[in-house]
Specification:
8-stranded parallel β-sheet, alpha/beta, 6-stranded mixed β-sheet, 335 residues
């Protein structure tokens, strides 16, 4: 972790200079999924207790669109920043061939309040979301995981695939499902032709029930309000990664998946935001005290992760300002 004594002029939040803009291209050149997973692994236990991050504000702009505000701040010398992410969610944009999520991230100094950087928050969010899931699968998935099932083929899907591959090099087969199968086949073809994924086979399949039974890791990134993952179809020893839902009406898996698996969350906000969990609590499927732990507790070893090869594990993430700030730190201090 860089200290304020050895920061370069771009890294020092006390250095008076014009704010910089960190574009999507810059993020791609600075970040890798492997490096961000490692940064989260090393930084979350040490710095998350020092970061203030209120539960995000979620405003309905229309029946199908939202504005989210996610602030966080820290006064530690090793993380002297304030960050605010502004996110718009327009799921219907797929019909316009536009991304459903747009975001901007603004970084300030927590020492003097000056604006340090404006970051492409859309790409930053894709990286940080995927790498939180990658870190969880590194801890919770079986060591011999071979098959990744990716449910959803939106902008987050290739990042999730790359993060899981970085976390679990044993993966050799990736099967992609999407409601619009052409998107799944296009993504599989793109990943086959681009990137350094030697020895990994990418394919698409329209039979969701069939491929669920093959997945050692099943990762979901959809806006579904109807369960897509049936718990009874999950393979023995599977790891289920749920990313898409962030409000009560959204639900990517059924109650059987929640009941069958040991459930972990990225942070406590998932207990009040995620439709899969809130609904399961209301229906008496599980209780809040049945949640096995959060990501920081897993990293620290305070909570036990996978107990045996037959256990089904479930990881539900909703995101937080903590990982936004840590991701922005890594990028800003690399400029």
């Amino acid at each position: 972790m860089a200290s304020t004594s050895n920061l370069t002029k771009n890294q020092n939040p006390n250095n008076p200079k014009a704010p910089i803009f960190i574009s999507a291209d810059s993020l791609h050149s600075i970040l890798s999924h492997s490096s961000l997973i490692q940064h989260f692994h090393s930084s979350l236990p040490k710095l998350s207790p020092t970061i203030q991050t209120p539960i995000r504000q979620n405003y309905a702009v229309s029946p199908h669109s939202s504005l989210l505000l996610m602030p966080s701040w820290c006064s530690s010398p090793s993380l002297p920043y304030i960050g605010v992410k502004l996110v718009t969610s327009f799921p219907q944009n797929s019909s316009l061939n536009l991304p459903g999520i747009h975001a901007s991230y603004v970084l300030f100094s927590s020492t003097n309040g000056q604006t340090l950087a404006s970051v492409d928050g859309t790409v930053l969010t894709l990286y940080r979301t995927a790498c939180v899931s990658g870190l969880a699968s590194k801890i919770l998935a079986r060591n011999d995981s071979k098959v990744l099932v990716m449910i959803g083929a939106g902008n987050l899907a290739p990042h999730l695939i790359k993060a899981h591959l970085a976390a679990r090099p044993s993966l050799k087969r990736v099967i992609i499902w999407n409601r619009t199968m052409k998107k799944a086949s296009d993504l599989a073809e793109h990943l086959s032709k681009h990137g350094d994924h030697n020895g990994v086979c990418f394919e698409s399949n329209e039979n969701l029930g069939e491929i669920l039974q093959l997945g050692d890791i099943v990762s979901c990134a959809t806006n579904s309000e109807v369960p897509l993952v049936r718990g009874g179809r999950l393979k023995v020893g599977a790891h289920l990664d749920l990313v898409g839902s962030y409000k009560h009406t959204m639900r990517e898996c059924d109650d059987e998946a929640v009941k069958r698996g040991r459930v972990f969350v990225d942070n406590e906000a998932a207990l009040v935001e995620a439709g899969e969990l809130v609904g399961a609590f209301e229906r008496g499927v599980i209780k809040e005290e049945d949640i096995a732990g959060n990501l920081v507790e897993l990293i620290e070893g305070k909570k036990m992760g996978r107990r045996d090869d037959d256990e089904v594990t479930v990881f539900k993430s909703v995101g937080s300002g903590v990982v936004d700030l840590l991701a922005a730190q890594l990028v800003y201090e690399a400029m």
